[in-house]
Amino acid sequence: MAKLKWGMIGGGEGSQIGPAHRLGAQADGLFEFAAGALDHRPEEGRAYAQRLGVPADRAYGDWQEMLAGEKDRPDRIDLVTIATPNATHFEIAKAYLEAGFNVLCEKPMTMTVEEGEEIVRVARASGKICAVNYCYSAYPMVRQARAMVRAGEIGKVRLVVTNFSHGHHGDATDADNPRVRWRYDPAMAGVSGQFADCGIHALHMASFICDDEVATLSADMASTIPSRQLEDDAMVNFRMEGGTVGRLWTSSVAIGRQHGFDIQVFGETGGLRWASEHPNQLFYTPVGGRTQIIEKGEGGLHEDAMRLSRVAIAHPEGFPLAVANIYCDLADAIRGEPRDGLPNAADGVRSIAAVHAAVASARAEGAWQDARPPMFR
Ligand code: NAI
């Protein structure tokens, strides 16, 4: 089968997420790195793309030049990944969807709920895929957790508790470092700092595993480093449409926690626990029974978890292969065989609506808010 052609915007040299996309997209021989506008500095972007093997005529200076160069090519890209800073996602995603390209957009998909709803509408009208990179949902053991919930193996879910709390912005003497500062500057980051950056991964994960959507929420947000205008810590209580009670803590000042993303799901007949720092194990406890460790790659997993387990049991798999799983599901979807589970623009706008609801709640001393975008109420 011919490889699909893949292009990337952002993710230039030294960027945080760029390497994970390049490893993920090319891990399975499904995509060829055909085009790129990788950097906000045109010459650096062109040079870096060529060093990565992109042909010179498809190593572009910016995303507009890439759109103009690709749209009429007979061998144009099948998929474009948008891995630029948040405020640029809307404009780029909209332009590429309108031109008939499939898109994988980094989170948060947009800055406002209105923009998010617009992306959902544009994606629907174009008939193209707009996926959002909630890549943690593609770890095999997260897919196993979701399948177990769907199969009723822990009964009706009563409670979900999730954290995405790290300590990497906890040093007040480093708060003015430009790489850190912009995340708490409303002009650059929008209405929310840590919740929009990391909290939405945890919120999406809760919806994904519980197979339910967040309906309402109440939030407390704090800037524990006083010079910050946006929160570096948030505690969010939520309720899902199916009645599940949710608790979420997200922080960037939790010194000693490293990646710090974990989730526990408590049902009527059992509980599940997963953590991103040990992604190959899922802990399962049946009511009245002992805790069992379910391993990636072992026999008897649910089909989706088995399919996405790459190497033999007990051999570590990690973040780039979770991203690769997103690209596998994208390749299937582009070839007309979509699978359940690929995060999409609807997930993207639900996250943004939750961010805005959390900010409104925190400003109103925790008053409960509708967390859904108007189009899904
Ligand atoms: P970064 O600041 O490390 O890198 C951004 C890159 O985009 C740089 O190479 C920069 O030159 C380039 N760039 C900026 N504006 C551009 C433009 N207009 N056109 C082309 N290139 C441009 O940022 P980082 O941390 O890699 O984040 C990028 C996006 O990925 C953000 O939206 C972030 O939220 C998301 N992200 C997602 C993660 C996940 O787990 N899904 C993890 C880390 C980041």
Automatic annotation (TrEMBL):
<dbReference type="Pfam" id="PF22725">
    <property type="entry name" value="GFO_IDH_MocA_C3"/>
</dbReference>
<keyword id="KW-0560">Oxidoreductase</keyword>
<dbReference type="InterPro" id="IPR036291">
    <property type="entry name" value="NAD(P)-bd_dom_sf"/>
</dbReference>
<dbReference type="Pfam" id="PF01408">
    <property type="entry name" value="GFO_IDH_MocA"/>
</dbReference>
<feature type="domain" description="GFO/IDH/MocA-like oxidoreductase">
    <location>
        <begin position="142"/>
        <end position="272"/>
    </location>
</feature>
<feature type="domain" description="Gfo/Idh/MocA-like oxidoreductase N-terminal">
    <location>
        <begin position="5"/>
        <end position="134"/>
    </location>
</feature>
<dbReference type="InterPro" id="IPR055170">
    <property type="entry name" value="GFO_IDH_MocA-like_dom"/>
</dbReference>
<dbReference type="GO" id="GO:0047061">
    <property type="term" value="F:glucose-fructose oxidoreductase activity"/>
</dbReference>
<protein>
    <submittedName>
        <fullName>Glucose--fructose oxidoreductase</fullName>
        <ecNumber>1.1.99.28</ecNumber>
    </submittedName>
</protein>
<dbReference type="InterPro" id="IPR000683">
    <property type="entry name" value="Gfo/Idh/MocA-like_OxRdtase_N"/>
</dbReference>
<dbReference type="GO" id="GO:0000166">
    <property type="term" value="F:nucleotide binding"/>
</dbReference>
<dbReference type="InterPro" id="IPR051317">
    <property type="entry name" value="Gfo/Idh/MocA_oxidoreduct"/>
</dbReference>
